Structure to design on (303 residues):
């Protein structure tokens, strides 16, 4: 099984994985040899703190090994094809995860690999982030179905995965973004096919009103740096701050996938305040990915 889009998983598969993640979190340190002798290749075209460290620690805690492979240091950076790279890595390791600019790169890896491929963020999606987010929401709210969730800001990769993840698990999502920064129309169409009715608005208050969960991400994603000046202008007014929070439910939780820019997409007061669960969310990357690795990597039968 590959995880390229969060929509590669069905509702029951997501909940089963989250159940496993919750058990692994509770009993951290007790699954020390389930991936003994297994290796994960981690290809990075972009920087990372959480994804890199949580995957590497996940493999270590499960008894396996992770290899950090900077794109520029691989022959990929000297024009070896993605397909040849995937085929060769398939002879050495048991799974590949890749953080890439173009979504097509991770799809091509999956097409050519004989082993599971995990999207660790592309320009289109961030499915591993969504697994951790859903684990965090479940911990705080008990279930996902029927919750009101509001995304404030850029209709980016994380937002796309949230749209699909919400559609699959039955969360009611509203997205507030400035004109021109709406989520990918194909993603919204796919979510509609899955039965969701995501509201897209340019009014943050409309989106946040009565929300159980507020979620935001940076205004300038990796790869968008050339547009920084324009984006900072265009996104003004799309900040999660105390005023916006006052429109949500009184027990609303605030998510941010991190890294955050205090004073831009979120105020310091809210990011560091009592509604924020961002550190649990970051920690849950580890537990959700341990469950993911156990789910996708076929275990060897000895003998
Ligand atoms: N949220 C997330 O993917 O963080 P990193 O970019 O640090 O991996
Ligand atoms: N949307 C951000 C997420 C970082 C984890 C980016 O792609 O840079």
């Amino acid at each position: 099984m590959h995880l390229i889009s969060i929509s590669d998983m069905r509702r029951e598969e997501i909940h089963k994985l989250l159940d496993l993640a919750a058990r692994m979190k509770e009993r951290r340190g007790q699954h020390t040899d389930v991936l003994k002798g297994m290796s994960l290749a981690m290809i990075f075209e972009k920087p990372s703190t959480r994804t890199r460290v949580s995957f590497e620690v996940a493999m270590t805690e499960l008894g396996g090994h992770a290899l950090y492979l900077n794109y520029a240091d691989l022959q990929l950076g000297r024009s070896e094809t993605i397909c040849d790279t995937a085929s060769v890595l398939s002879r050495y390791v048991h799974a590949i995860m890749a953080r890439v600019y173009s979504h097509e790169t991770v799809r091509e890896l999956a097409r050519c690999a004989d082993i599971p491929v995990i999207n660790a963020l592309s320009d289109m999606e961030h499915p591993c982030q969504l697994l951790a987010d859903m684990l965090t929401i479940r911990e705080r709210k008990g279930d996902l179905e029927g919750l009101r969730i509001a995304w404030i800001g850029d209709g980016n990769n994380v937002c796309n995965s949230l749209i699909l993840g919400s559609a699959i698990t039955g969360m009611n999502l509203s997205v507030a973004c400035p004109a021109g920064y709406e989520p990918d129309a194909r993603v919204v169409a796919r979510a509609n096919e899955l039965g969701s009715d995501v509201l897209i608005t340019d009014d943050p208050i409309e989106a946040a009103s009565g929300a159980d969960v507020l979620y935001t991400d940076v205004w300038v994603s990796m790869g968008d740096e050339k547009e920084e000046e324009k984006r900072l202008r265009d996104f003004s007014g799309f900040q999660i701050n105390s005023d916006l929070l006052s429109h949500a439910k009184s027990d609303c939780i605030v998510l941010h996938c991190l890294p955050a820019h205090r004073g831009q997409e979120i105020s310091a007061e809210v990011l560091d305040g009592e509604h924020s669960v961002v550190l649990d969310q970051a920690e849950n990357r580890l537990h959700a990915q341990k469950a993911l690795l156990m789910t996708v990597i076929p275990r060897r039968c000895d003998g």
